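Changelog-adjacent note: as of this version, every example in the card shows the full chain rather than a window. The one below runs 486 residues end to end.
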Amino acid sequence: MTETATLISAPPIKYATKLVYGVGSMAYGVKDVAFRAYLLWYYNYVIGADAAMVSLAILVALVFDAISDPIVGQFSDSLRTKWGRRHPLMYMSAIPAAASFFFLWHPPEALDGWGLFAYLAVLSSAVRTCITFYEIPSSALAPELSSDYDDRTSIASYRYFFGYLGGYGMSILALAVFLAPTAEYPIGQLNPVGYWTFGLVGSLLMFGTVMISTAGTHHRIKYLRKLPPPQRRNPLETFMLMRRTFSNKAFLAILGFGLLKYTAIGMAAALSLYFGTLFWGFDNFEMAIMSAEPLVGAVLALIFAPVIAKRLGKRNAAFWLAIAAIFLGTLPFILRLNGLFYADDDPRVLPTLFGILALYSACAISSAILVHAMIGDVIDASALKTGRRAEGLFYAANSFMQKCVTGFGLMAAGILLTIVDLPERAQPGEVDPASVDLLATLYIPSIAVLYIAGALFLHFYRIDRASHEANLAALKARDDAKRPAP
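Full-length structure tokens:
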């Protein structure tokens, strides 16, 4: 049985609405960069927990996410309220997400060993699940805000821009202010009080941006698709429906690409403090400057992703941007290991590295933007084939894909750290340079293989502008045929 959607004629989405819609992703960005770059370092290097144990706890949370994400997506798709399918869940998520994030950075001092492992696993799972109740319904709004092939790329660009602004803006604030060196902690990254402040400010930012975005898009509810009540299905029928939904070849291509690429990004982010402090020898001020390079990349991606997609098409642009990203991301490490990069005391180190990695971020973010927009096109193709709108389910899979950043990526980073055997809580001058070089040597092929293998999956994605417009026309014709004559 198919669902006949009533789509009220909507005015074109304004830039102000795109902006306020994108603002909500700052909450996800705060959570994301915290899990990517700070959580492993904080629990391992500051608190003193074993790196492998911390990575395992975060992986446990990822497994929990793998179960909760499709459940939230399915629930959002099936929800029918006067505020639509998405907004009630988005409003509901604000307080629990902020509270669980706060407590994640305030573990009881008496905890250690498996007690600390349990605390980290439970709180990590809570943060992920609570933000899922915002992120998946909010992401699922995007295809309904606009069905235009290019406009969807623009909407995704704003979403990713604000996600990076929230995450890396918070990172800059942390390194420049919360983790600034003190007499007691001349290396500010080791100051536990800074992470407590990080947790407080981050939780407030998460609450505020979720509420702003949800309330700011509330006026679009009346223009969203009006669907009939969903069929009652037993668990087996629901599972089979989800299986049919996820069997779309174009979607599986995106999923394969994202799983490998985002795992590589997660590994890079998890090791960023290690490399910045131990490999490049940066102090807090220089680390704060380097934390701004993803923001520069996000600005460039906001401008260029729609342009490149129009010229090459979303799939081809996403592929070549991913290849360019891996080249730029590994280049400085390859040069340094072979004695071809500037020495630590050379003033050209920071601006050169910043420039190369800003271009890397621009390529990686642009590729991610295009994948996010491609999912909206997959949803229309799937609706034509299955007769069912499943935005929530598809974006649940996308959410899981991105969370592989902080699960598999952190786990891989923990394994590399275990292999090189860095001493716990050692000061930069106390770490054997050979161990740091070995970490970089293992890191380069690891992320290169993940990136390249992931990009190859995009070969199986076959939706272009022409086929998308054909799908929209077929959907409209089918819905018009089912609509009762006046």
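Structural remarks: Residues 1-8 have pLDDT under 50 and may be disordered.
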